[in-house]
Amino acid sequence: MTVLAVHSLFRWVVVVALLARVGRALQARKGAFTPIDKRLGLIAMIAMDLQLLLGLALFFGLSPAVSAAEMDVGAAMKDPYLRFWLVEHGPTMLIAIVLAHVGNVRVRKAADDAAKHKQALIFFGIALVLVLVAMPWPFRPVVGRPLLPGF
Fold first, then answer.
1. Closest residue by Cα to residue 26 from 105, 128, 97, 94
2. What's the pLDDT at 38?
3. pLDDT of residue 82
4. How many angstroms separate the CA atoms of 13 and 44, rounded?
5. Residues 6+ apart with CB under 8 A from 5
6. Hey, where are the domains in the chain?
7. If we measure between CA atoms, which residue out of 82, 80, 124, 85 comes closest to residue 101?
8. pLDDT at position 45, please?
9. What angle do CA 9, 129, 113 make, to 5 degrees?
10. What is the pLDDT tens value at each position of the chain, 151 positions in all?
11. Nearest of 54, 38, 146 to residue 93 by alpha carbon
12. Residue 138 phi/psi, 5° resolution?
């Protein structure tokens, strides 16, 4: 399996991990902050970090789209396909990863359980939205990719 195929499939691990973290924060808003809550945040961050490593491998050499865009950045900015892979997808996903990490720190430092759940909901929720917005969904013109590549 290529790095791109693994990256494309692993996105679902990231989405499920973020959905689980956000769902748990919503469910337990007024309840106790448990080791499961902490673990879900850690799992989401690890999934995002692994996805980042795969994405960096693609961005810095393995992606033909990024390589083509880097040949002439000016022309790439006029091409929606190349622009998406060069300057829209990666930076948006990077912001999502940073938000998840900042959120995890804010959760740890929050004064009480309700504040911990609120911080998790805000930061992991925004990260989830950014991930969903920057994914190359099949219905997106020009950049759409299959939901399960190779299947």
1. 128
2. 96
3. 93
4. 9
5. 149, 150
6. 11-134
7. 124
8. 96
9. 105
10. 589 999 999 999 999 999 999 999 999 988 999 999 999 999 999 999 999 999 999 999 888 888 888 888 999 999 999 999 999 999 999 999 999 999 999 999 999 999 999 999 999 999 999 999 999 999 999 999 999 887 6
11. 54
12. -60, -30
Residue with tokens 């080791």: 35
Query: Which two three-digit tokens encode residue 2?
Result: 């290529």
3-state SS track over 109-136: HCCCHHHHHHHHHHHHHHHHHHHHHHCC
Residues composing the chain:
151
Query: What per-residue confidence (pLDDT) applies to 63?
Result: 86
